[in-house]
Amino acid sequence: MTQPLLEMRDIVKSFSGVRALNGVSIKLARGEALSICGENGSGKSTLMKVLSGVWPYGSYEGDIFFEGQAVKAAGIRDTEALGIVIIHQELALVKELSVLENIFLGNELGSFAKLNDEDMYRRTRDLLKRVKLEVSPNTLVRDLGVGQQQLVEIAKALNKNVKLLILDEPTSSLTRNEIQILLNIVHDLKDQGIACIYISHKLDEVLDLSTWVAVIRDGDHIDTRSAAELTQNDIISMMVGRELEALFPREVHDIGETVLRVKNAHAMQAGASIPQVNDVSFELKKGEILGISGLIGSGRTELMQCIYGCYDGRYSATIEMQGQSLTIRSQRDALAAGIAMVPEDRKRHGIIPIMGVGRNISLSVLDDYVTYLGAIDENRETQDTVDYIARLKVKTASPELPIKNLSGGNQQKAIIAKCLLTNPKILILDEPTRGIDVGAKYEIYKLMHALVKEGMSIIMVSSELPEVIGISDRVLVMHEGRLKGEFDHQGLTQEMIMNCAIKEGV
Ligand SMILES: Nc1ncnc2c1ncn2[C@@H]1O[C@H](COP(=O)(O)OP(=O)(O)OP(=O)(O)O)[C@@H](O)[C@H]1O
Ligand SMILES: [Mg+2]
């Protein structure tokens, strides 16, 4: 390697005595991309927080060198001044401000203080062109999709004269097109001599972009290898410490009679002219995994929200469960009927960040633990939550740890545990494996199979076609609010789903 731009040596970081990083070393040169791979909770985001100054000098052990100089940052302002910019796993734009305002936010007093409005407008327009985002600089961020917001974050980074760009799981909520745009931008940046650190559970992206792949497992640095000599399977076995037999365990389900019948579901936002869900009817059988596919925006999530009683707008549907008609107007009604849902956006609907992991899991069924004296039977509560923490392999130092301190993927597992504790008859999973590592995905699929064998029925909305095909018994495809197709999993291919998902006409 030529003279490295960045070198991190023997980084050790602990949280209240628990080691998250156990002596990790990485380096990379200008124009190179380094991917960091590892299971949920292995320490990837923590390493990046050390690098970017979120965890300041003195709160970790080890050394960091950038352009040959020792870095002793007190915060992210110091590392940004050096040209190190991080885009976190959770986006950090101010939704009520415009694209332009977000791009210059935090920079008003810096080198741009002299710029007038017109200069800023022109500069923003040029930056947006560089990231291939065709929106006006005055657009409010809240009116942009997640993928577009991600591009604004990159534009903002480019405005800071970035030398090293860190992307922590940038594509987990993006559409295929948006992912391609993002990958192209990273390739362009490399060509311009900018270095990039990339974190993703999508190993095809990792291999597409990287010069180097570093693998960490439980805070230990396993190895760094040249991406050119690696396959996805090599990375997986370095990550999990063993070969996985298969990515998708296939099991035969004993499918019974219809448990849920949804008829004529409609959903429309206030003031909108086109419905998000347009006259959808379908059935779910006992012991079945029903996959729901379709492009982002095709109405899949909104259909689930109609069933779960949490659609934010006008909606109607006739719902029958085991032959009985149901009225579901709230999450409470749904849970009482035996329907639980793991939402797509866990930050907004899923968790209470500062509350402990255990209590987050038991929250929906807390009433069940109230004793006749009116207190909560904490022993029984802990027993149940600890059981699910083990079953789903949620990596947490203790059940009392605030859930916000868990790694992204482990928060997701805790939300699934929370739903399972309600012991539902019907479980709705909206993008259940987003941000989850390959080993844990496999565990979740096995758990889904076990649950339907016990008689539960599962509806899974997913944008990952291999997952939809690999796990479902039957697949429904949506297009612009309507149900466009229904397929048995046997003989089903990605092309068949894509053709159905993008086809115009009825
Ligand atoms: N602020 C914190 N307080 C306590 N523990 C923490 C804190 N931040 C991280 N941890 C712990 O450090 C470990 C590593 O977490 P980290 O977020 O770095 O994982 P990750 O590799 O990014 O995982 P994922 O793929 O799920 O995002 C986890 O066990 C996590 O619970
Ligand atoms: Mg992370």
UniProtKB/TrEMBL annotation:
<dbReference type="GO" id="GO:0005524">
    <property type="term" value="F:ATP binding"/>
</dbReference>
<dbReference type="InterPro" id="IPR003593">
    <property type="entry name" value="AAA+_ATPase"/>
</dbReference>
<dbReference type="InterPro" id="IPR013455">
    <property type="entry name" value="ABC_transptr_XylG"/>
</dbReference>
<feature type="domain" description="ABC transporter">
    <location>
        <begin position="6"/>
        <end position="243"/>
    </location>
</feature>
<keyword id="KW-0997">Cell inner membrane</keyword>
<dbReference type="Pfam" id="PF00005">
    <property type="entry name" value="ABC_tran"/>
</dbReference>
<keyword id="KW-0813">Transport</keyword>
<dbReference type="InterPro" id="IPR050107">
    <property type="entry name" value="ABC_carbohydrate_import_ATPase"/>
</dbReference>
<dbReference type="InterPro" id="IPR003439">
    <property type="entry name" value="ABC_transporter-like_ATP-bd"/>
</dbReference>
<keyword id="KW-1278">Translocase</keyword>
<dbReference type="InterPro" id="IPR027417">
    <property type="entry name" value="P-loop_NTPase"/>
</dbReference>
<keyword id="KW-0067">ATP-binding</keyword>
<protein>
    <submittedName>
        <fullName>Xylose ABC transporter ATP-binding protein</fullName>
    </submittedName>
</protein>
<keyword id="KW-0547">Nucleotide-binding</keyword>
<feature type="domain" description="ABC transporter">
    <location>
        <begin position="260"/>
        <end position="505"/>
    </location>
</feature>
<dbReference type="InterPro" id="IPR017871">
    <property type="entry name" value="ABC_transporter-like_CS"/>
</dbReference>
<keyword id="KW-1003">Cell membrane</keyword>
<keyword id="KW-0677">Repeat</keyword>
<keyword id="KW-0762">Sugar transport</keyword>
<keyword id="KW-0472">Membrane</keyword>
